Task: structure prediction
Amino acid sequence: MLKCDDLSFSYFDLNKKQVNKVINHLSFKIKTGEFISIVGPSGCGKTTLANIIAGHLPVESGKVFFNDKLVSSPGRDRFVISQENDLFDWMTVEKNILFSNHVDADKLIKMVHLTGCENKYPFQLSGGMKKRVAIARALAANSELLIMDEPFNSLDYQIREKLYFELLEIWLKTKKTVILITHDIEEAIFLSDKIFLLTKPPCKLKKVLLIDFKRPRNVALRYSKKFLRLKKIIQESICI
Amino acid sequence: MNKAYVKILVIICVICLWQATYFIQGFHNNLIPSPIVLIKSFYDVISSGELNEHILASLDRVLVGFFVASILGIFLGLLFGYSKVMGLIAEPLIEILRPIPPIAWIPIAILLFGLGNNSSYFIVFLGAFFPIFTNTLFGVTQLPKKFKNISRTLELGKVSFFNDVLLKFSMPYIFVGLRIGIGMAWMSVIAAELIGAQSGLGYFIQINRLLLNTDKIVVGMIVIGIVGYLLSKLILFLGHSLMPYKGDSNVEM
Result:
């Protein structure tokens, strides 16, 4: 379980010479195994939040608890998968995945559909394949929480679609907790159990939307009335 | 047309042009030998074994000095880049020592180590050390935040971070340093031999100056050029075989 308790964060803007408050007394709870999306207006501190939960940034005030332990530094139990490619260039796919933990590589590589690419280097992979390796690496480290910070941003449409289903499949199989940070509303509705809507910066939690579509979900869902209604609610909430 | 053919063609053209100038009356004063004389002279010094000995003597000095410089340069570069305190202490010293050309060290090297091989090793070491060290240091400081973050997430130990991340990431930068370093080492050894040695290619061209064998001087110079080129190629080859991957560090070997 992840618990964020009264988080605040600001940074000093060197250009404007003033302190900018990004996160303002934000509190929420996420249950183990949930698929949560965090959606908010651009610049509302979503990535900052991801970095705080991962332990890369110290909070100004407030506390983050993961499985009842206070988060103070990064750890294997919380993995960030960002839009940036952070695979080690000098390691093959297999070595990247197994670098920190020796697990059954074949099973993992099969799960992320990378069979046959074990000995390739990251520069030989497409964007989508790199994302799959990053996910497999997190799974190999036995991470319990995947913090996905706009992971599909740089990918083209068809690959995104494919990765949605792969991600859901992996999530259903492994029962990891997933926090997906995104600005893509459809992506958020299609994938998550709950959507946390944030306000403009300094951000607070504005609304929690329950997405109770049955799983496994299929593409037709996107044209249902309920889906469109949810999309409208979110759109209006973000743009105001 | 293939690039290699073009290169060979250029060399052949230059040699032909050079030879052709000898047919112009009054153009030469017999100081610079013609290619035909050089080829004959080259054959002589190779077949008598005279040149081979000097090449081996120079190579020995370069390889010993360069090897020590590589080990020390890479190690200290990694260490000073990794530890901010060490970097701060070392910076002023290095910034003052670095601009002193290896040749300027020759007098003190001869006083310290005598006229033997040791002073040449020392000069070569100095020539190669700074490019290797500074490039390694630069590489380490270029380590992107994303790799630091993922290393912390993976909870890597210090040794693993040093070996598997920092060193591996810096490899392209290190190899740029090694390539510049081997060039500097080769230039330094020739300079050292011109002044304080009894063998080697530098000594070979120096002694032939005293004997007024201009053809041998030029042969020596050309051999210096060729060996230097081959050494640089060797490092390049080593780099490519050690790093079959490409990073996004934008370093081109």
Summary: The longest strand of chain A covers residues 18-30.
